[in-house]
């Protein structure tokens, strides 16, 4: 971990979740679905955290609950040391400071609105700050998002832009309110490979120039390696491994993290093929929630502690910067550090 990252992660958390649960009612008498089933997570000022996991693991629901878009069933979310309020006025004030950037820029932009109107929308909802000219604010946001000269884009419509330009407009729409935190849900998944690097470089530049914090939701560990200071790996509603990007991606301890990393071209080993699908969140298994698909348990290597894997629950991991793993095999006596 770099000195810069070490300093960044030692600051008090800007965003903090403690014991977060989000449960949805089951359909037709089925048990409730535990989409987020106990999560602690901190994001420090100026820190980029990647939330990684398969589709359906709960990462988008967690991200939305951190923004106040989904109210937790239990647990707390705090921003800048204060608990998040769910009254309309409190949420409106919070959303000036924490903005969402969605995966599909085409779906995020109204095809009937010009670029200018798309970026100015947030200012109009929240009210232009005293002494701020709307036109100057929109131009500044577009320029920071890499659309220069910005006035050339004012009267364009989304269909007249490339995919990368549309994503920059979405980012500009978030930046125009001068937020302290951006939550980016799969921000480059719909873009061509040639454009993805540009958008990731933009997010890093915004962090360095503006001090922005970011939570980047992704299924791609390669993306996490290129952009994140810290990684939280999520499985079936809970974070199962967390730490600095260097520690988690070069020395993964959880078998699930190891399986996700094994499919990257640079891993150099044989891909780990997990059996079956992630369990239904309304029927989370006892013990380690990964045990039914665990390649270490299936191979017989963990036979001595199989009873613990199948029957003994694991604690919620700390939300801070320390490396931690929720795995009986990784934390057994004599396990490699």
UniProtKB/TrEMBL annotation:
Boundaries of every ABC transporter domain copy: 17-261
Keywords: ATP-binding, Nucleotide-binding, Transport
Pfam families xref list: ABC_tran, oligo_HPY
SMART domains for the chain: AAA
S-adenosyl-L-methionine as UniProt keyword: no
Domain of life: Bacteria
Keyword Nucleotide-binding set for record: yes
UniProt-listed PROSITE patterns: ABC_TRANSPORTER_1, ABC_TRANSPORTER_2
Family according to the record: Belongs to the ABC transporter superfamily.
Protein name (database record): Putative peptide transport ATP-binding protein
């Amino acid at each position: 971990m770099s000195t810069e990252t070490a300093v960044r992660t030692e600051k008090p958390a800007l965003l903090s979740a403690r014991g977060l649960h989000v449960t949805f009612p089951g359909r037709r008498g089925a048990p409730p679905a535990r989409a987020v089933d106990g999560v602690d997570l901190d994001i420090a000022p100026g820190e980029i955290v990647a939330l990684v996991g398969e589709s359906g693991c709960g990462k988008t629901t967690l991200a939305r609950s951190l923004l106040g878009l989904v109210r937790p069933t239990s647990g707390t979310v705090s921003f800048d040391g204060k608990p998040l309020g769910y009254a309309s006025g409190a949420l409106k004030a919070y959303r000036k400071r924490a903005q969402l950037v969605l995966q599909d820029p085409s779906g995020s932009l109204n095809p009937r609105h010009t670029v200018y109107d798309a970026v100015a929308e947030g200012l109009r909802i929240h009210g232009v700050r005293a002494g701020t000219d709307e036109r100057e604010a929109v131009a500044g946001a577009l320029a920071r998002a890499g659309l220069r000269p910005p006035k050339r884009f004012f009267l364009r419509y989304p269909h007249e832009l490339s995919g990368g330009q549309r994503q920059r407009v979405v980012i500009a729409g978030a930046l125009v309110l001068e937020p302290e935190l951006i939550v980016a849900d799969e921000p480059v998944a719909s873009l061509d490979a040639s454009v993805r690097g540009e958008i990731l470089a933009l997010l890093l530049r915004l962090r360095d120039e503006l001090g922005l914090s970011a939570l980047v939701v992704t299924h791609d560990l390669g993306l996490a390696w290129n952009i994140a200071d810290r990684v939280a790996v999520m499985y079936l509603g809970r974070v199962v491994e967390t730490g600095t990007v260097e520690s988690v991606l070069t020395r993964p301890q959880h078998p699930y993290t190891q399986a996700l990393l094994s499919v990257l071209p640079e891993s150099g080993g044989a891909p780990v093929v997990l059996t079956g699908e992630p369990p239904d969140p309304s029927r989370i298994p006892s013990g380690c929630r990964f045990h039914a698909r665990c390649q270490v348990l299936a191979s017989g290597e963990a036979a001595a502690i199989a009873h613990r894997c199948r029957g003994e629950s694991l604690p919620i991991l700390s939300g801070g910067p320390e490396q931690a793993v929720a795995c009986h095999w990784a934390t057994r006596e004599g396990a490699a550090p």
